[in-house]
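User: Before I run my own analysis I want an independent prediction to cross-check against. Here's the chain; please return only the structure tokens and, at the end, one sentence I can use as a sanity check.
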Amino acid sequence: MSTIDEKLAKLGYQLPDEAPPLANYVPAVITQKSKLIFTAGHLPKNESGEIIVGKLGESISNEEGYIAAKKAALATLGSIKSKIGSLDNIKKIVKLLVMVNATADFKEHPVIANGASDLFVEIFEDIGFHARSAVGVASLPLGAAVEIDLVAEIN
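Assistant: Structure tokens:
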């Protein structure tokens, strides 16, 4: 078991298996020269494996949105692990995009996005700090509350 896997277990986090794509794309791509891995958008799932759905500012709370972002972040790590074998091979979390399914007047996007950002820093410490964009959108696939994609540098 890797050091990151041990840390995830100690913190009570479980990585989901890589989800099959919903359309014509792959869950993650590695560039060989730059050693970057780019994930596709990942949706949050609850403990039953169901997509966490809802619209921030309307049908779910900020706390639920924060948790959804954390679950989507775990999903990106599951896909990365399936491609590189061990999360200990992550050298740096580089860039995070968090899309928040929100009403037009919702203004708390950074609060929701912190669910993912906080997870990466909690797990990876200094190498978990990253650049980030958090945007509000009118809808997301399958009605998901959030969708995130990630860029990480790997060994």
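Sanity check: The longest helix spans residues 62-84.
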